[in-house]
TrEMBL record:
Binding positions (5-amino-6-(D-ribitylamino)uracil): Y28, A59, L60, E61, C83, V84, I85, N115
Annotated protein name in UniProt: 6,7-dimethyl-8-ribityllumazine synthase
Source organism per UniProt: Celeribacter baekdonensis B30
GO molecular function: 6,7-dimethyl-8-ribityllumazine synthase activity
Lineage of the organism: Bacteria, Pseudomonadati, Pseudomonadota, Alphaproteobacteria, Rhodobacterales
Superkingdom of the source species: Bacteria
Gene symbol of the encoding locus: ribH
Enzyme class at the top of the EC tree: transferase
C-alpha cells in the first residue's frame, strides 16, 4: 500500500522575490478538495508565498482556467487540484487522461504547474491522499509548482525572452538609445 512507502521529498525552495500562486480546484468531492486546498495553501505560505483560489466545475476545466489565467493575469505558477474517482463508465479515463495531458502540455510550454488532481479507484484512496496531515497531495502539488518556479527564476535568460527582468528592459532601452545617438562608422 502506498501509505507505507517511504518517499524522498525535496526541501522547499527559498525565494528572494515573493511568489504568487493560483490554486485552481474542482470541488466535485468538496471534502476531498478542501483537504487538497488546505495542504496547498500551507505549503505556499511556508515559503512566504501568496495565493489566489478559484473553483471550476470539474477536472476538465482546471487546465482551461490555468490557461486563461496565464494569458490574463500575473501568477508565477499554478496548482491544479481535484479528484476523479473511477465510476462505471469510460468517462473516468477521459477525464484523467485529458486533464493530465493538458496540464503537461502547458508545463512543456513553460508554465510552472503542480498537478494535484487525484485519480483513484475509490473514495478511501482519495481521502488518504488528500489529507493535509496524511499524504498531503495538495501540498505536494504546491511544492512541485514552487520548485518549477525556482528553476525558471534560476534559468531566466532575457536573451531568449524567458523571464521578466526590469534590467533587461533597461538594457534594451539603453542599447536603442545608444544606437540612435551613438557615433556612426563611415
Amino acid at each position: 500500500m502506498a501509505a507505507n512507502e517511504q518517499h524522498h521529498i525535496l526541501d522547499l525552495p527559498t525565494f528572494d522575490k515573493p511568489v504568487k500562486l493560483l490554486i485552481v480546484v474542482a470541488p466535485y468531492y468538496k471534502d476531498i478538495a478542501d483537504e487538497l486546498v488546505a495542504g496547498a495553501k500551507a505549503v505556499t505560505e511556508e515559503v512566504g508565498g501568496t495565493w489566489d483560489l478559484v473553483e471550476v466545475p470539474g477536472a476538465l476545466e482546471v487546465p482551461t482556467a490555468i490557461s486563461i489565467a496565464d494569458k490574463m493575469s500575473n501568477f508565477d505558477g499554478y496548482v491544479a487540484l481535484g479528484c476523479v474517482i473511477r465510476g462505471e463508465t469510460t468517462h473516468y479515463d477521459t477525464v484523467c487522461n485529458d486533464s493530465s495531458r493538458a496540464l503537461q502540455l502547458m508545463g512543456l510550454q513553460g508554465l510552472c504547474i503542480g498537478n494535484g488532481i487525484l485519480t483513484v479507484e475509490n473514495r478511501d484512496q482519495a481521502v488518504v491522499r488528500a489529507e493535509a496531515k496524511g499524504q498531503n497531495k495538495g501540498g505536494g502539488a504546491a511544492a512541485a509548482a514552487l520548485h518549477l518556479i525556482a528553476l525558471s527564476r534560476k534559468w531566466a535568460n532575457p536573451s531568449k525572452g524567458v523571464g521578466f527582468h526590469s534590467d533587461a528592459i533597461r538594457l534594451a532601452q539603453d542599447t536603442q538609445a545608444s544606437e540612435s545617438t551613438g557615433p556612426k562608422n563611415a
